[in-house]
């Protein structure tokens, strides 16, 4: 098998049937500002599916991750609620509405936070490594990893090719938000890559400065643990601290201020502490692997955006960097998958116009998507996908039932149409019939995707 027979596969989280706005993520401005809005789960799921289908029809390998079961009865039981499922739901909704909301979020849709992944070209044992993110910083997200782990193990079940680690210890010192704070650079997907790990604070070491207002979710120690678990070479790794001012402005994950693909890095000037050092270390390390691969590409291409062009506030309003930077096989230049908000924020629209008119820019086109249902919770195009670099043999050993093709696209459109509500308010969320609707839908989905039993209502999993 040629090394270059490797692909970046985008695994998008299917937006779940309880998608709603509960204002659960302090530090994420969109989430807090949308609290109490009515959501439309059906529209949300179709918006996500349209993005996936666009990429699939442009030759990009696209797969999907199923939503998690919500409301999460198991968590209610673990914290002492007793009775039948219907009795538990009623009790929690009446006595602990905040816990009810936290356990009803469809937040697993933001697959960039599902896990961190290392491709087999970069790991000492030559296998693909997965570590689900513990997401300890937010209660509603900290309950995701056991199911995430089962889903990943079910898709990548062959232990000759795939290694699954448990989520890191659920303690704030090891706060891990997954691939949202990780970027891999390479000359080709099948060649050795450089891994950029971005953290917001250190649990044990004093770092130059930390955010004053909003929480820094990722720690240096968790990123270091992932590097060890995934058997990455230190010479191929760069650690960078996220700029605390950016976190305080609402940049709760690094993928809100930067995005990279292959040899291109697109970022805001206020992304990192000691930005110049971070960039030069990245470039030095990239040059080494590039020379090793014997490629013409020897330097990273940096596309910085400064505050005079686009302010940090506009970055957060538009999600300019929460875009997907894609190399479609049918195009020479790179394509940016952007949310519609980028067309609506004038500084960003102007910036993108200039970028595209520059013939030397590696980014040659932009496609805008209406992902408003997700965006209102702070989740743009890049949040919705987990990138997994796989070679052709590894793809063949994966569960192909989750890879999007025309048949699955049609099945998913019908499935969403059949099972999803088009409005979700607090009354809808606490409607006792919702649980049964969700379980029926998810049970059918596991059959469509050939995943076996992954939900606790299907078996005795914790
Ligand atoms: O963790 N929002 C998510 C958004 C995650 C975006 N992901 C990336 N940047 N990769 C979060 O803050 C809001 C849920 C609510 O408020 O109902 C929420 O969880």
Summarize the structure.
The chain contains 18 helices and 15 strands.
Task: Walk me through the structure.
There is one protein chain. With 462 residues, the protein is of the alpha/beta class. The protein has one domain: L-arginine/glycine Amidinotransferase, Chain A. Helix content is 35%, strand content 16%. The protein has 18 helices and 15 strands. It has a three-stranded mixed sheet with strand order 2-1-15. It has a three-stranded mixed sheet with strand order 3-4-5. Strand 12 and strand 13 form a beta hairpin. The longest helix has 18 residues. The protein starts with 5 loop residues before the first strand and ends in a 14-residue tail after the last helix. 52% of the residues are buried. The model has no long low-confidence stretch (mean pLDDT 96). The site of N~2~-(3-carboxypropanoyl)-L-arginine has 23 residues, from loops.
The distinct ligands, each listed once, are:
N~2~-(3-carboxypropanoyl)-L-arginine
The structure class reads: alpha/beta
Write the CATH architecture name.
5-stranded Propeller
User: How large, in whole angstroms, is the Cα Rg?
Assistant: 21 Å
**CATH homologous superfamily annotation:** Succinylarginine dihydrolase
Using the alpha-carbon principal axes, give the shape.
Answer: globular
Report the average pLDDT across residues.
96
- Largest sheet properties: 3 strands, mixed
Overall tally of structural domains: 1
Strand content: 15-25%
From the N-terminal CA to the C-terminal CA, the straight-line distance is 40 Å
Low-confidence stretches: none
Number of strands: 15
| Spatial strand sequence of the major β-sheet | 2-1-15
Instruction: Give the CATH topology.
Output: L-arginine/glycine Amidinotransferase, Chain A
The helix count comes to 18
**Fraction of helical residues:** 25-40%
The CATH class label is Alpha Beta
